[in-house]
Amino acid sequence: VAERYSFVAEPVELHFSEELPVREARVWVHPNKAKERRVRVGRIFISREDFERFKGKEVRLLHLFNVVFDARARARVTSTEVKDVPKINWVSEHVSASVLMPDGKFVRGLAERAIERLKKLECVQFERFGFVSYQGKLKKESRKRGEEGEEHEFWFAHK
Fold it and tell me: Reading across the β-sheet that carries 123-126, which strands appear in turn?
């Protein structure tokens, strides 16, 4: 049974003016496993697709709280109670990641830091994205001033 992790493609950072009501989220590794992971909450990133789709609407950040954000990514927490609103993925403490898709193109984004413990070829689920196979850590050159960094590469398997 594949463990679940968070990944956001083409990340957009949400900017909160108030202090966040939660400093740590408890995330189940998989619904059928009695195992959870604690995720520290700091800066919050969501996918560009979710940002464009849900601007001005209340959404729930999975396992966290409900928010509303505007076109400038200014966000406010509306409630910690679970409501019947769309649920979207988010990442806080993160590493760079890319997913090779079946069409040969890479989707670049951020994955939660916990993926650093994965073994090569391990299959995991990026929640609300799909199942992926971990290929390892690669050196990458940033577009900014020739800086170098590392990126974790995954290959898409299926939805």
Answer: 4-5, 123-126, 130-141, 148-158, 94-100, 106-112, 7-9
Structure tokens at 58: 């209340």
CA angle 69, 74, 79 (to 5 degrees): 50
The reported pTM is 0.88
Domain ranges of the chain: 9-88, 94-158
Q: For residue 27, report the phi and psi dihedrals to the nearest 5 degrees.
A: -120, 125
83-128 pLDDT per residue, tens: 999 999 999 999 999 999 999 999 999 999 999 999 999 999 999 9
Distance (Å, whole) CA 48 – CA 26: 24
Task: Specify whether the CB–CB gap between 69 and 51 falls below 8 A.
Answer: yes
Please state, for a pLDDT cut of 90, what percent of the chain lies above it. Answer: 72
Domain 94-158 falls under CATH 2.60.40.10: no
Q: List the Cα angle 97/101/104 in 5-degree steps.
A: 110
Q: Which token pair is 159? A: 């939805």
Q: Give backbone dihedrals phi and psi of 88, rounded to 5 degrees, phi first.
A: -130, 155
